Amino acid sequence: xxxxxxxxxxxxxxxxxxxxxxxxxxxxxxxxxxxxxxxxxxxxxxxxxxxxxxxxxxxxxxxxxxxxxxxxxxxxxxxxxxxxxxxxxxxxxxxxxxxxxxxxxxxxxxxxxxxxxxxxxxxxxxxxxxxxxxxxxxxxxxxxxxxxxxxxxxxxxxxxxxxxxxxxxxxxxxxxxxxxxxxxxxxxxxxxxxxxxxxxxxxxxxxxxxxxxxxxxxxxxxxxxxxxxxxxxxxxxxxxxxxxxxxx
Length: 248
Hints:
By secondary structure, the chain is of the alpha/beta class. It has eight helices and eight strands; from the N terminus they run βαβαβαβαβαβαβαβα. An eight-stranded parallel beta sheet has the order 7-6-5-4-3-2-1-8, covered by helices on one side. This is Copper homeostasis protein cutC homolog.
């Protein structure tokens, strides 16, 4: 566990981004409309955030609620516009009507990204066959992470799956980094770190006052410390308010 773990924080605007970086975030996931669980932000939002911070930004490519691609051409055009504005990292993931990966839509969007790094998001937690999805996506250019809770219901239920998948690291389909998010709580971190998980994603947990308020640099700093030193805070964490489990 000597390698520094990645801490990714959802940012809706530049104020969020500045606070997240101040708290120790390594990377931001940029979205809008959390009522729909995070959609593609306006290009102007990306450029404002890019000007405000100097950490990595991954921009969501998702134009409608749910996990269907809708019109892949619209997603491609959104990706093109963001790339022209300077975006270099992305988040995406599409399922078909049967709950399998919509490989045609994913491949069409990935072709537009032309080698940019990207995360396959929590659509993996809603697929009918996680292993099959990983095998189908194996080798796609730029895929370097899966954002997953191990279960559509969140980390509490998905923890056994996360531990099993972490143990398969390096196998075909399991080379991308596991980034845990979705009902993630501080007390989950030590077991996940011990299993070799090296990336964590928070949204609501970075906003103790709820989604109507900006990211708290102090909340992010607590996560930074626990992610870096999982043994820290076994007593101290009892005094911390539990992070919200919505959208994180």
